[in-house]
Amino acid sequence: MLNPHSIEAFVLIGFGGMFGALARYILIQFAPSRNFPLGTFMVNVIGSFLMGVLLFSNSSSSISLIVGVGICGSFTTFSTFSLETIRLLEEQNILYATVNSMGTLLSSLIAIFIAQLLF
Amino acid sequence: MNRSNQRRKNIAFSVIHYLIPLAFGGFIGAITRYAFTLLFPNLISTILVNVIGSIFIGMVFYNTAFTKQSNPLLHHFLIVGFLASFTTYSTFALDTFISPEFAMLNVLLTYVLGFTGVLLGKSINEKSLKGAFKC
């Protein structure tokens, strides 16, 4: 059992975050994102699904901390998402900005719902 | 011979200037976010990290000192590593899913404050940081 306030918890979450950030970077590198930020869209939906799996499979609290807070938390990103949405608005691409912001939300919620059905 | 040397140099450059700063940024970003979740109640901590992260990404993204071309190391450490890991979409989506009574409020606050946060960061950069971080 991991004490949430221990230095071990912080370090393990840190390594989870490192792994999540590298995985996000690699996935985004390979996603075709010329006009639409598909890479960020994908990591956010996949990460939300994994977060749902963690919750509904009743994982131990230590696993939830390392995988949920560490890996999934860092694998997904809000700041890049909000920046890219603003960039689309600045390019007057209202359609893609709407699809990005609403699509990420809807797809993530559906992904969590599917995780609930599966686990 | 020449080409494989060049390739080795390129890989070494990517590891030193992209991957290591990114991994280090991800490490501290996750720990900083976790500190917020210990300090503030559930929904509020996620809103806080996402809004603060959006303000900061607006400040640095539009600053020429932090672009991928001008300073790849800082760009990957700060934007792709730290700020991207400090903020999170999965926790936000899960919060929205499991607390229906706050779902609307959570989405509205996160989206409105997050998007205006980027614009606020951008204007902070334009008004007061432009000269400060020139390289």
Q: Strands, helices and their partners?
A:
The complex is a heterodimer of chains A (119) and B (135).
Chain A: H1 7-30, H2 38-56, H3 61-75, H4 79-90, H5 94-118
Helix pairs in contact in A: 1-2, 1-3, 2-3, 2-5, 4-5
Chain B: H1 2-39, H2 42-61, H3 72-86, H4 90-98, H5 100-129
What can you see in these coordinates?
The complex is a heterodimer of chains A (119) and B (135). Chain A has helices at residues 7-30, 38-56, 61-75, 79-90, 94-118. Chain A is mostly helical and 119 residues long. Chain A has one domain (7-118). In chain A, helix 1 (7-30) crosses helix 2 (38-56) and helix 1 (7-30) packs parallel to helix 3 (61-75). With 135 residues, chain B is mainly α. Chain B has one domain (2-129). In chain B, helix 1 (2-39) runs antiparallel to helix 2 (42-61) and helix 4 packs antiparallel against helix 5 (100-129). Chains A and B meet through helix 1, helix 2, helix 3, helix 4 and helix 5 of A and helix 1, helix 2, helix 3, helix 4 and helix 5 of B.
Principal-axes geometry of chain B comes out as globular
- Total of helices of chain A: 5
| Mean of all residue-level pLDDT scores of chain B | 93
Percentage of residues in DSSP E strands of chain A = under 5%
Order of helices and strands of chain A: HHHHH
Head-to-tail CA distance between termini of chain A? 23 Å
Quick one: biggest sheet of chain B? Answer: none
What is the quaternary state of this protein?
heterodimer
- How many distinct beta strands of chain A? 0
Q: Give the total of domains of chain A.
A: 1
Number of strands of chain B: 0
Fraction of helical residues of chain B? over 70%
